[in-house]
What we know:
It comes from Orbilia oligospora (Nematode-trapping fungus). The chain is about 55% helix and about 5% strand.
Amino acid sequence: MLESESKGYARNWADEKEQTKRLRSEILLIRDDKLLVKNFAELFSSEPVSIIVGPSKKSFTIHIDSLRRESTYFKEILSTKTSEDGPFVLDGEEHNIDAFEMFVEYCYFGTYFSSKHDEPHLLLLHARVYALAEKLRCLPLKAIALKKAREWSYRDSMRPEGSLLLSIVADLVEAIRVVYTYTEDSGDGFILHRPIPNDPSGSLEIARDRFRLLLAKLAGMHLNTLKNLGEFVKVHHRFADFNTDMLLFVRNAVGKPKVSTSEFRNTLADGQDEAIQLRKNDVSAFSRFFNTDTLGVFVGKQAKRFDVQISAVECAEFFKRLMTSAMMESRDKADYTCDKDRADTFTQQAAVYLLADRLICPGLKKLAHEKARMICEHAHAGKPDEVLLAIPAAVTLVYENTYDNHNTKLLEPLSNDHQDATNEASNSANGATATEGPPKGKTDAQTEATNRDSFRVLLSQFASFYIS
């Protein structure tokens, strides 16, 4: 009985504590309301000013003191302006009418209410308010918009029926475009908690734009689905900062690529067969190179000279065009020396690939790609660290010096249902003649694969397995 009475007293004490806490909150709210009403009344003592907003030129009449008090931008612009000077025009794309209505509500009430907007579309509204607040230099409104966007994201993640995000991809894409176009982030691409160099205090915090990170996180969580949607692919390729931020939230691959031991051994054996074929066919005929004249080739900024036999460079279309048409047709070369066990040769293969691309030598280009692929597979079977160190240099080489006909698409080929709208535009921009249907004898998947730069795909695949 004593135990039950003790529990009853504890329950009553907890109820009284909760009631007291609620009462104090109501008192604070009443005080805030009184302060707000007092300030609200004072705003009407100032003269109104007309503001024309957006391409549709919607007019707003607002008391000038409310604008000056809440926005540093308006405080500077309207410091000498009166209602007699005529309306003030905000016709930039970032001046969205819905967002400006929220700004007007904030000027009078200290917050904004989005009751007339549907729940699924609130994320885009908050993004527009956030971008407008940065333009108008209204930091408190930026904080409110970010807080509301986070609350929307939390509610969306807790829905029993699942997230609404994939049903409003157009809103997500537009939010990314608005925020990454009209906001700035000096720390874009940095990890959230990274030691600051030469800081004796050992501080780890780096200032980041939190709305950008929120959008990058939402996209990273649903990347497996979003990467197949053309509208997301467009914004993915447009904003490099967004791509870099999204890497902070992309999960690492579950496992290494599925390459069976037998397949890997067969690959190594194929490489050995190529070397044997080289010795049989080419070494024995090597003396034939010296029966032709030499061609002087100057390479690099230092203009290093190579005197190469003409028959040796006939495999490159580039050199064939420089020489007479009476030359013999090019002869496919079987191989060149490469140590697949040395990961530091990966960048070398990328350089060979680029040279072959420049010289229009498809045989050498394909060979360089195959050797790079073997290095990657060998690294998967052992330790990938050495190849990972070489990846940045190889990425810089390949992506700056090659062109991908389908560079508007992500790594995995898109199905016919998800073809993005930029496909036709990119083909016309290249001046290529459109063909009806895939080449004969090739499936759609094979045609799609041949339209991608193979070395770019190799780099993307290898890096994706170790994204963390």
